[in-house]
Amino acid sequence: SHARRSSQTSIDFILNPLVRLIAPVLSFTAEEIWKEITSSKEEVSVFLSHYLKKDLELNSNLTINDWSKIFNVKDKVNRAIEEARNSSVIKGSLDAVAKIFLDEEEFSLLSRIEDELHFLFIVSEAYIYKSKTFKVEIIESNEEKCDRCWHRNSSVKNSSIGNICSRCNENVFKNGEK
């Protein structure tokens, strides 16, 4: 599936330079990894390879400045999650529902990735609202927990591999998510 291939490409972009960087310190381990990764077939050894200098052309409608703003919001949400955890409102971040109140600019930016926000903030559900002041509200989810991804979701149903959500069901038994 496209999602699987995209994940594999991302992992390769991270793993390939990482193996080159650890080679001087963990030489045998780096060499074993090098023999297994598919992108390294043109070079026989990690010690005979060159660092990648090609520019990556990524298809994204978000700029580096946009990501900086997004991660600024993520830091604030993480602080609120930690406070909720310390106050025993939640046990872990995947037990949480995050309600984030944003100004017009931040709301417009985060609404572009609204379907993915719960993955970004590592919570079961994330909702954004327009507001004059920034505020994060963390509450405990009362939905069932998926045995596979641990997200709490109303779509969790019993299957042959346990209680799984509709997203995991799509990934395990069907063609995978888009």
Explained architecture:
Helices cover 42% and strands 14% of the residues. The chain is α+β, with helices and mostly antiparallel strands and 178 residues long. A three-stranded mixed beta sheet has the order 2-1-3. A two-stranded antiparallel ribbon has the order 4-5. β4 (157-159) and β5 (162-164) form a beta hairpin. The longest helix has 23 residues, at 64-86. The protein is globular.
Outline:
With 178 residues, the chain is α+β, with helices and mostly antiparallel strands. It has helices spanning 2-22, 27-36, 64-86, 104-111, 117-120, 166-173, and strands spanning 96-102, 125-130, 135-140, 157-159, 162-164.
User: What Rg is obtained from the alpha carbons, in whole angstroms?
Assistant: 20 Å
Distance between the termini: 8 Å
- The SSE order reads HHHEHHEEEEH
Using DSSP, what is the number of strands? 5
Mean pLDDT: 88
The low-confidence parts are none
Strand order in space, largest sheet: 2-1-3
How much strand?
A: 5-15%
CA-based shape = globular
Q: Largest sheet, if any?
A: 3 strands, mixed
Q: Helices, strands, pairings?
A:
Elements: H1 2-22, H2 27-36, H3 64-86, E1 96-102, H4 104-111, H5 117-120, E2 125-130, E3 135-140, E4 157-159, E5 162-164, H6 166-173
Parallel strand pairs: 1-2
Antiparallel strand pairs: 1-3, 4-5
Helix pairs in contact: 1-2
